[in-house]
Amino acid sequence: MAVLGIDIGGSGIKGAPVDLQTGALLGERFRVETPHPAKLDDVIDAVGEVITHFNWRGPVGIGFPGVIKQGVVWTAANLHKSWIGINAEMLIARRTGCGITLINDADAAGLAEMHFGAGRGRRELVLMVTIGTGIGTALFMNGQLVPNLELGHLTVRGKEAERRASDRARSEKELSWKAWSKRLNEVLLYMEQLLWPDLIIIGGGVSKNYAKFCEHLTLRTPVERAQLLNNAGIIGAALTQTDEAASADDSDDFDDD
Ligand code: BGC
Predict the structure, then answer these.
(1) H or E segment and range at residue 45
(2) Are 2 and 26 in contact (CB under 8 A)?
(3) Atom 4 in ligand 1: which residue has the minimum CA distance?
(4) pLDDT, tens digit, for every residue of 193-236?
(5) Whole-prediction pTM value?
(6) Can you tell me the distance from the alpha carbon of 171 to that of 137, in angstroms, rounded to the nearest whole number?
(7) 241: closest CA among 55, 53, 21, 60?
(8) The ligand 1 atom nearest the CA atom of 162
(9) SS in 3 state form for 108-161?
(10) What's the average model confidence in pLDDT over 226-250?
């Protein structure tokens, strides 16, 4: 079954059809700029552009950079506040005529990595951290997602973690990779100290530069780069159109003990 996966980010809205069996993208990714300010109607129009580009009439899974509960947006730290309180799942379905499922973007990326990437077959506590405009986090135990974990908003050195250590903070403050990775390391150490995960997977826009910062991380937890890189968000969003979306338990690698 093919589903169109769309990842709404602070700088770009990316989409591609996804083969749910294999997690492979079934075509070139298509990206449009995220409108600024990222108001509800303008972003929905941009999502519509992605759907039209693929001439898509089938189901669509969308990753959103904020807390989502039953289709309703509760937070949108890096988008316009016009999103707050809106049942965006329903609204986007009405505007586009497609069946829509909406999920937090980091949860989506985590689902993809648990199904097809660095977390495949891992039953222990896995923390996915996506680093782009913001910092997103997703937690899995026994392959099961605990949704809407918002550790990017922890306070580190008196400031929100994502304001100190997101990829946006790195480029806006023109930090060297080394200086930025020290900040990231502090944030990850704090998360580690709170959660004691068994594996941390790092994804998001910054994952393509993993080699530039991984050597500066001093965590006791094993850290791996997201295998699906920045496509994890698209693939995981598409996965939400399956029944077992919130679980990676159908992976072949799990023992049924
Ligand atoms: C949001 C999260 C999101 C993360 C990454 C944060 O600002 O609160 O929900 O997952 O950014 O986009």
Answers:
(1) helix 40-53
(2) yes
(3) 136
(4) 999 999 999 999 999 999 999 999 999 999 999 999 999 999 99
(5) 0.95
(6) 21
(7) 60
(8) 7
(9) HHHHHHHHHCCCCCCCCCEEEEEECCCEEEEEEECCEEECCCCHHHCEECCEEH
(10) 84
What is the chain's Cα-based Rg?
Answer: 17
| Domains of the chain in sequence order | 2-107+232-253 (3.30.420.40), 120-228 (3.30.420.40)
**Contact between residue 83 and residue 73 where contact means Cβ atoms under 8 Å apart:** yes
Structure tokens, 64: 């959103």
> Cα(166)–Cα(10) distance, rounded to whole angstroms?
12
- The tokens describing 45, both together, are 């129009």
- Ligand 1 center–CA 65 separation, angstroms: 4
Confirm or reject: Cβ of 105 under 6 Å from ligand 1.
yes
Q: Report the nearest atom of ligand 1 relative to the CA of 107.
A: 10
